[in-house]
Amino acid sequence: MAPYTAYSLICLGFLLLVFCFDVKAETSEDCKGREKLCSRGMAGEGFCYNEDESDCCGGRVFAKTAGSGCCVNVWNMTARVYSHERQFCCNGTVYSSGSLDCCADVVFNTSTQVCCQGKIQKFTKGAMCCGTELKMEGQVCCSPQHQPRYAKVYNMPKENFICCGNGYINRTEYYCDFATYQPMKICSNNSVHKCCGNEAYDPRKATCCNKKVFHGKSEHWETGDGYVINHICCGGVPQSVNEEICCELRVHNRTATSQCCGTESIDTDEKVCCNGRPFKKHSKYKTKCCSDRGYYEDGEHLCCGEHEARRSVLYNVSTSDNTAKCCNTALFNSTESICCGGEVMKKMKKEDDSCCQVHTRYQTYNSKYYLCEKQGLVAKASHRQQCGRGRTIDTRGQLCCRGMIHPKPSSAIKCCGTKTFNSSNPQLLCQFGSLVKRPPRQLQQGQPNYRQRCGRHMFDTRRELCCRGVKYAKKSDAMKCCGTRLYNSSDPELTCQFGIRLQQMPKIGERQS
Hints:
Keywords: Signal. The chain is mostly beta strands.
């Protein structure tokens, strides 16, 4: 009985420490509010839990306790809860704290060993870690600022030597580029001069490109912290920022309308650039690109695949020919063929104007008489209606709301966005595709309702105007809406175009630009 008693006590203690929820497997859709899914390794299955009250470890939910952690063993896919105060996790195994600790997934004894950047070293009095090595008294540790693991130990300090990254350099011969932590050979003791390779140069009189000095390029201006050169390098040679342009490592003279086109520089008033190739503009027709070829919108060209600039193909065909159509980059005769899934397909019947995908195959059909469903073509009926791609509905008992199919038990059921609602419910109102609660009616039945909704607010139609969700005070009957703006319609100098754009009318005698 003793072994069973001990086992029972262990289980009882474990249950007191850990509170497990024995519930039916759930999915993320079952989790509400602040709950999250604690996955147990199955496809989308686990248990819902509240992060404020519980923890998830290895697909099991436990009561949250202060200082607890989850130790996961990736080799055998097990997990265990442990206490940070008394235990630690190392490579998926829980150990008791004390003289032991973890160093890069290996357990070591802190009384005789030390962990240096993931490597265990023998403890020595007065020593300290330098990267993965131990630095003794009298030695120098050179460490890169952001990569301490790669620090190096040098035997003894030397006069005029300094650390540069993990290197130890003589500062009378080298200086340290602290941007890259690379030692650079000193080429001059003159504070004005700079190095270009191993050659010193005066940046006020020359430019350095690709470790080569170019003299005579001395455009510069003096600033408070030194000299700013008005040159940059282009293909190993200097380029004047104001006078020249660099096109794929080639220098050209710059004008106000210069633009790179491949390795060339073009005048944008005279040419267009089509994928790195220049093309001369036409004085009469608009010039466009089709892949790397230019063409004029003169009604004699058709570019197929315009949205795939590098694959588009230009055809010499009159755009007045309404039978010539594009299918991706291919040209086809629409009286004989049809574009199905980006491929040209011969019509099964001359009257066919659409195509229907059934599994992996397409077939052409006449959309006047047929509808395309997942199972294939079905004959059109007065009560059948297309709802999205490959789906139809029976309008006698279904509704299509922006591609979503819903049952329609009565004629009062209407669409609001992708959802349905009961339009006979006086408390519901559909606005801009969203359901909102209708404001309470304050007028008696039979009286006109001057209270209307304007966006999220109410307005009085007798004293206010609503311009596309924006509320204004109506100072006179001449005040009208133009988009979201209010204007005086009696003003002869103002006009509203297309109901959305307010424009100033030109005065008599003035030309309209």
